[in-house]
Design a protein that fits this description.
Elements: H1 2-43, H2 49-62, H3 68-74, H4 80-93, H5 107-118, H6 123-131, H7 138-151, H8 157-166, H9 170-184, H10 195-204, H11 209-226, H12 237-248, H13 256-260, H14 266-271, H15 273-276
Helix pairs in contact: 1-2, 2-4, 3-4, 4-5, 5-7, 7-9, 8-9, 11-12
Length: 280
Amino acid sequence: MPKGKNGCTGCIKAPFLLLLFILLFPTYAFAQESRGIQQWIKDLRDEEPLVRWQAATHLGRTQDARAVEPLIEALGDTDEGVRREVTKALGEIGDPRAAKILDDTDEFVRLNALGALENIEGNEATKLLIAALKNDSPMVRMNAAASLGRRGDQQAITPLEEVAGSDVQSYVRFAAQQALVQIRGETVVKAPKDTKALTKRIAADEKSAPLITEMQQVAERIKEQFGLVLDYKKYDIMDLLDIEARMRMRHPRDSMESVLGDLLTEEDKERNRHLFAPKQ
């Protein structure tokens, strides 16, 4: 008889515990997530830049509004890598205040701010991208033009026309021209694929001499900073700047193939094979 009674008690207890788990688990899970967010917010003030960088990454992924004010405060971080990740996080959350850092001393922090703005809908973000067309960094101006082209907002046409006709850098003018045809629904102008033909055309145009000099300078910077030796004549200026940007933003865990595999010529991959070899 007692055995039967215990068995019956077990029959009642099991469904009761299951129901209790179902009712309480969402509260527990929310508490755990909230605890995680609060810890990441605290980590934004950690002494180690890597900890602050990781905290910003996690907060961006949560897309939680509670993270916005701490991230805004972290825009003033002394570490440029942290500031880059903070602007990215604000873009993932969808807060246009990431644009506060468009005048940052680090060019790639500004580029991340542009990326954040592109992810944010609305007129305010478009106006901030238009303002970035006058940034003192050619890379920022070029990427601002490209972002506006992808947004397709008609109010960007006049500012882009001005850039397309007057910017001192030919690759910025080209980016603005492409953005304009995207907004107007025309066929996007393709950059020449025949690099030999491109080199001849540049050499024939005296006005393009500064562009050749700039390509040489970018290639030299890449060689000095990253040990990457490139035949710069096989690229256009936008490709070279893209290579430089990717290398500067490369995480230590990223392989060279994943970062540059789609950009380098086969000859330059072979020339820099020692950099592509997996780390032991």
